[in-house]
Amino acid sequence: MKLKSLSLALASTIAFTSTAYAQTEIQWWHAFTGRLGDLLAEQVEQFNTSQNDYTIVASHKGNYSETLNAGIAAFRAGEQPHILMVFEVGTATMMAAGGAIKPVYEVMAEGGAAFDSDGYMGAVKGYYTTTEGDMLSLPYNSSTPVLYVNRNAFADAGLDPDTDLSTWQNVDAALTALKEGGSTCPLTTAWQSWVHLENMSAYHNVPFATKDNGFAGLDTELAFNGPVQVQHVQMMGDWAADGRFIYAGRRNEGGANFRAGECALFTESSAGYAGVKAEAQFDFEIRPLPYWDGVDGAPQNTIIGGSSLWVLSGHESEEYKGVSEFLSFLSTSDIQSKWHQNTGYLPITIAAAEQTKAEGFYDENPGTEIAGMQMTANAPTPNSKGLRLGSFDQIRGIIDEELEAVWAGDKTAQAALDSAVERGNVLLRRFEQANQ
Amino acid sequence: MEKRVTFKGWLLPICLLLPQVIVTAVFFFYPAGQAVWQSLFIPDPFGLKSQFVGLGNFEFLLGDPYYRAAFTTTAVFSILVTVASLGMALFLAVLADRLIKGSGVYRTLLIWPYAVAPAVAGVLWLFMFNTRVGVVSWYLGVLGYDWNHVLNEAEAMGLVVAASSWGRVSYNFLFFLAGLQAIPKSVIEAAAIDGARFWTRFRTIVFPLLSPTTFFLLVVNIVYAFFETFGVIHTITSGGPQQATTILVYKVFADGFVGQDLGSSAAQSVILLVVVGLLTVIQFKFIERRVHY
Asked: What gap in Å lies between CA A115 and CA A328, rounded to an integer?
């Protein structure tokens, strides 16, 4: 038995290596582990077995920041992969690196594989296309913030779980009632800058930065200290002061508190769905992100977070052909709808959304369609197309610090956001200087 | 009278020195020289182009109030880590030294934390003190204390200091214990016969005789606090809240690897190098005089 399986393994190894020689290898560096990593590996496996010309080799290179750094370091050493996964905040860095990347629209045109960039949802694609409409990187995983409701917590505090929470005014009233009803954590959040400033701005159609949020030039300046943002942050600061909003951390630390059942409301990425569903021992529900009633144009549309796939320069044209085949494969609606249903990320092609709907997934999993609806409710404006800011990972760090000052009661919202704008602009000027 | 060994000719001494010189050149002078060179430029992340700015990066840094604040943070953090880990280790070593039965078990248990990598130690402490759901913070909540290191600067500093010192106590403990055991028992017994109590013996005999060990550990621990605590800070606070735990080396990382601002990052490395160099010189010049070998 042992010998048999051994010889079988040997035979298959020989068979594999002999075909592998004939195949062109395509390197893909990514940032996914755990369940997402497994699903990614499944896609790669499926592609590799579906044809004989190319082999995709997927390598995990750490978290988003680490993957980007690994890609950059490899490029400097002339060892860059063909495909690099870059999170959305690294978009400006990649775009500015003209000589280091090969735009996806170019790869697809040269490779000749079936590809229709119009099949991608406008709100997703917009983040990664030039102002002329050319797609620079392929959207991979995209999510948008939504509101998670712990229905049991509402009932425990004596509130109707079906209370209308579509506006922040209503949320304010609900939080007060929850607090009075004995809730120790009426509201918590993940990714505060992304949800409560970046998306907040887009959702209310106010600029986050000048020059169309950076899309129109490197000389952009931050502009998120306007009245709408200040009002929102000040309100959250007031909530934080008397325990109606509990701050748990800069990333998704708040998720632990919500999933443990402690918090009644939670603003988090739609991609948090799988985790909440797996762990929550209570009745939960997804609602659209609230907006401020009375702000002109609200609710506009929310923007995405997540990553896209960048093709790096410096490889053979035969290899780029393989890349184009693989990207084309990833865009098919079977792959996309499966990814959407398994992860809670958005269905990034229109066909995938329709297929998911036709399969009855939304009826079985109520709430999972909300993220997509929220993104596509309105045609994106220059304020809601996305953000394209250099050093943005670090600017987020600055925003985090200043928001923490508000939550701790050390600064008013106006002072904190003014300071964040001023400090962030310094970094934008450094970035502009480095990429002149 | 000092003993001097003299070599005939040059070849042998050069051969003996060469390995160390090569190692130092390759792993220290070359990268340090590169850092100095890079600190004069603002490059783009991919190394496609780069502009010479002279001392512009240094001007930019020293004009930044947050960078200047990081010096104070680093000083506070390093002093706390060094004092906490040395003090705790000395206390434990003195106790373990007096122990006759079962000392092996104690020693092994005390040495264990050293095997834990700083980043992992950071995660362990973070689990215990996780706001509201961590074990320790939950019990503190029961006692009526609302632990929230994500907003409270003092708590954040305390937590990173504790996590950084914890693994270090083991290392220091080993050296202190070895140092204590090297002190001749006869000296201590003689003092005891003369009527010196434990505390007097410790203050006048043990501690002075331990001073070479203490001095060595002081230097090593300050270097540790400056450079190797990065993992702990990265996992627990990421430098927050409001930069309360952003020490110099963390800022080098944040600007270089998060911000991709390699010019500023290189300039910071150069500044850090100078600071640590100065510190070591000061230690050897002023503190070492008081050390009895």
From this structure: 6
pLDDT tens digits, one per residue of B54-96: 999 999 999 999 999 999 999 999 999 999 999 999 999 998 8
Interface check for A72 against chain B (CB to CB < 8 A): the answer is yes
Tell me B256's DSSP state. Answer: I
A397, A405, A430 ranked by CB distance to B258: nearest: A397
B60 vs A contacts (CB less than 8 Å): 430
In chain A, the residue whose alpha carbon lies closest to the alpha carbon of B150 is: A249
Distance from CA of B64 to the nearest CA of A (A): 9
Beta bridge mates, A38: none
The pLDDT tens digits for B247-258 are 999 999 988 888
**Residue A78 maps to which CATH number?**
3.40.190.10
Residue A45 inside a domain? The answer is: yes
Question: Pick from B131, B147, B121: which is nearest to B235 by CA?
Answer: B121
| pLDDT tens track for B106-130 | 888 888 888 888 889 999 999 999 8
CA-based nearest distance A421→chain B, Å: 15
Q: Residue B111 corresponds to which tokens in the numbers above?
A: 């040495």
- Residue to mutate among B146, B150, B152, with most A CBs inside 10 A, is B150
Residue in B closest to A407 by C-alpha: B151
The helix or strand, by DSSP H or E, that contains position A168, with its residue range, turns out to be: helix A168-180
Residue A14: which pLDDT band, with cuts at 50, 70 and 90?
A: very low
Per the document, the length of chain B is 293
Q: CATH number of B60-290: 1.10.1740.10, 1.10.3720.10, 1.20.1420.30, 3.40.50.300? A: 1.10.3720.10
Whether the bond into B13 is cis, omega within 30 of 0 = no
Instruction: Judge contact between B137 and B145, C-beta under 8 A.
Output: no
CA atoms in the 13 A half-sphere facing the CB of B216 = 13
Q: What is the pLDDT of residues B210-247, one digit of tens each?
A: 999 999 999 899 989 998 898 899 999 989 898 999 99
* Predicted interface score ipTM higher than 0.90: no
Residues paired with A131 in a beta bridge: none
**Same domain, residue pair A137 and A151:** no
The count of other CB atoms within 10 Å of the CB of residue B12 is 10
In this structure, the answer to whether residues A283 and A406 fall within a common structural domain is yes
Same-domain pairing of A182 and A204: yes
Q: Do A394 and B239 lie within an 8 Å CB cutoff?
A: no
CA–CA separation, B89 and B95 (whole Å): 10
Q: Where are the domains of chain B?
A: 60-290
| Residue B111, pLDDT score | 86
Same domain, A112 and A183: no
Closest CA to A369 of A347, A399, A402: A347
Number of domains in chain A: 2
State the Cα–Cα distance between residues A356 and A358, nearest whole angstrom: 5
Q: Is the pTM of this model over 0.80?
A: yes
Domain coverage including residue A156? 145-302+390-434
Q: Could you tell me the two tokens for A417? A: 């956001």
How far is Cα B245 from Cα B66, in angstroms, rounded to an integer?
A: 12
Helix (H) or strand (E) holding A189: strand A185-189
Task: Give residues 341 to 370 of A whose Cβ lies within 8 Å of B.
Answer: none
Is the Cβ pair A99, B263 closer than 8 Å? no
Residue A15 sits in the same domain as residue A90: yes
A265 and A298 both lie in a single domain: yes
User: For an interface test with B, which of A63, A72, A183 has the most B Cβ atoms less than 10 Å from its Cβ?
Assistant: A72
Under an 8 A CB cutoff, do B261 and A405 touch? no
Residue A116 belongs to some domain of the structure: yes
A15/A137 same-domain check: yes
